[in-house]
Amino acid sequence: MTPLRFLIARILRNEPMLASLSLPQDELLAALSGKHVALIGNARALAETEHGAAIDAADLVIRINLAPMPSAKSHGSRTDWLALATRLGQADRSRIAPRRILWMSHKRKRLDWQSASSPGFYLHPLTDYLSLKDRLGAPPTTGAMMIELLLRSELASLTLYGFDFFASQSLSGRRTADQVPHDFTSEADWVAALAEADPRLKLVR
């Protein structure tokens, strides 16, 4: 696909055409088989920890959106996959340097050509977004969508760092919980239930 055809597909909301740029979901999930995965949220409280070495020791490190990394000691330094729901400027793209970009947002108008044409690009299906939205009773965060997606695979373990469901707010901005469209109580309860039912899932406080 050319950049012009991509822009037309995005303007016209031509989902099949945009989806043609994506790695099939089953191939993405197959790449996770047997892997120990670290999913890094953007809670401010993570900056006060020393989890960096454990994060970098994972087989696969996945970060979210602008992926602030104030210190390798707390956050690690590697990014294998980047789960996006916002535009990524060139400075952040170079800083994060992900090997694969996953576009998780239902807002396709934010998707840029550089991300969509990058190696191994993945576009999360709208049906999956809507299903999780119904389950949570509110628009899911990028982190929630990733947890749901990753646990569908045959990964060995999924460890969550930097997830406190907005108790310490986000390193990515100054908004409070009532200024964003998510239901963090619902997400916290949902993740707790998942962790109880699936021993592969661990939430590191």
Automatic annotation (TrEMBL):
<keyword id="KW-0808">Transferase</keyword>
<protein>
    <recommendedName>
        <fullName>Glycosyltransferase family 29 protein</fullName>
    </recommendedName>
</protein>
<dbReference type="InterPro" id="IPR001675">
    <property type="entry name" value="Glyco_trans_29"/>
</dbReference>
<keyword id="KW-0328">Glycosyltransferase</keyword>
<dbReference type="GO" id="GO:0008373">
    <property type="term" value="F:sialyltransferase activity"/>
</dbReference>
<dbReference type="Pfam" id="PF00777">
    <property type="entry name" value="Glyco_transf_29"/>
</dbReference>
<dbReference type="InterPro" id="IPR038578">
    <property type="entry name" value="GT29-like_sf"/>
</dbReference>
<keyword id="KW-0325">Glycoprotein</keyword>
<keyword id="KW-1133">Transmembrane helix</keyword>
<dbReference type="GO" id="GO:0016020">
    <property type="term" value="C:membrane"/>
</dbReference>
<dbReference type="GO" id="GO:0012505">
    <property type="term" value="C:endomembrane system"/>
</dbReference>
<keyword id="KW-0472">Membrane</keyword>
<keyword id="KW-0812">Transmembrane</keyword>
